[in-house]
Every structure is written in C-alpha cells, then in structure tokens.
Automatic annotation (TrEMBL):
It comes from the Bacteria. InterPro entries: PAP2/HPO, PAP2/HPO_sf, UPP_Pase. The chain crosses the membrane at residues 27-49, 128-145, 151-174. SMART domains: acidPPc. It holds the Pfam family PAP2. One of its GO terms (molecular function) is undecaprenyl-diphosphatase activity. This is Bacitracin transport permease. Keywords: Membrane, Transmembrane, Transmembrane helix. Residues 62-166 form the Phosphatidic acid phosphatase type 2/haloperoxidase domain. Gene3D superfamilies: Phosphatidic acid phosphatase type 2/haloperoxidase. One of its GO terms (cellular component) is plasma membrane.
Length: 199
C-alpha cells in the first residue's frame, strides 16, 4: 500500500465515523468551522489581560502563524490536491467549502501555531491546547474537507515554526520596545491605575 492509498484509507475511516455516529456531527462541524472565532476571542482575552508574558505569547503565536503560512504556501507549490469531497465519491461532506488546493490545511496551521505557543508559555492547562488543536485537525477530516496528510503536514509545519518564533521573540529587544511603545499609546486611551509594568 502506497502513501496515497494510506491517506485515502485513513480519510475514509475518520470521515465514515460521521455516517455512523451522526450525533457527533454538530460538534465536529462547530470545531471545524466556528472554533476559529473562539480562538480569536481567547487570544484577545490573553492580550487584554495586559500582562507582558501574555502579550509576548500572542506576538510569538502570530509570528509563528505567519511563518507557518509562508512555509505552507511553499509546500503547496511542491504538492497539491483538491479537497476529498472534490476527488472522491461518497464523501460525508458536512460543511460548504470552495474547491482549491487543500494541502496543507490552513485551519490546522492556525490552530497549531497558536495552541503550540500557548502550550510553551502556559504552565497550567497546557495540554488542553494540544488537545484542542488535535480535535480541530481531526474535525477537518471528519467534515470531509481535508485529507489526513493535509492536517499532518500543517501540524508539523506549525510545530516547527512555533519553536522558531518562541526562540526569536524572547531574544529580540525590538519586540519588547515595540510592545512598550504600543502600551504607552494604549495607556493614553485606556489608562490603568497600576503603571508599574511600564519599562
């Protein structure tokens, strides 16, 4: 069995669960299509705690995502495939999606970039972030819009970019300077009583 057949067989296994366990479909539809809005809300909450560590974490996650997206676009030029519902018959397609190159999965890139960064920075509940990214990746297969290889490669790219970003962000003084300038401006608009965090 070659890699393509393994990819299709694993897709069929996961996607067919949606036909057998229909009561789980709404959960996976939410995770595949709407969890991105929850992630954005979580990132905003971390940012507006006004804690330096949380803001450095969000900056690191954003840089990780940008790096991963760039690497993902390069990977997409080396290999391409359309969504499974466009290439295979009898796919359990649960959400609407335009037909284009689905390799690698942008959703997976986004969630692993942020969730892996949260894993690195957060000491409590850190494994929940990894579980969240994994479930979102699986959900994209469950609803029929990505192959397992799309998700796996997206995850690998983001994990790699996350370690690069977390290494860079913690060592670049210019990032802290830019954050300090931002916080000075923010203080003028949304003043706080405690100014002890200003550099």
């Amino acid at each position: 069995m070659d890699l393509f057949e393994m990819n299709v067989d694993l897709f069929r296994t996961i996607n067919d669960f949606g036909k057998e366990y229909t009561y789980l479909n709404n959960f996976f539809i939410f995770m595949a299509e709407y969890m991105v809005f929850v992630l954005a809300f979580i990132a905003l909450i971390f940012w507006f705690t006004r804690r330096e560590e949380n803001r450095m974490m969000i900056i690191s996650a954003t840089i990780s995502f940008i790096l991963a997206e760039m690497m993902g676009k390069i990977a997409g030029t080396l290999h391409s495939n359309n969504q499974p519902f466009a290439e295979l018959s009898n796919v359990n397609k649960l959400i609407e999606k335009a037909v284009d190159n689905s390799f690698p999965s942008d959703h997976t890139i986004l969630f692993f970039a942020f969730c892996m960064t949260f894993f690195i920075y957060q000491k409590r509940w850190r494994y929940i972030w990894i579980m969240l990214a994994l479930v979102v990746g699986i959900s994209r297969i469950w609803v029929g819009v990505h192959y397992p290889a799309d998700v796996i490669v997206g995850a690998i790219i983001s994990i790699f970019s996350t370690f690069i970003a977390s290494f860079i962000v913690s060592r670049l003084n210019i990032i802290r300077k830019l954050l300090w300038l931002y916080e000075k401006g923010e203080q003028q608009i949304l003043p706080t009583r405690d100014k002890s965090r200003e550099l």
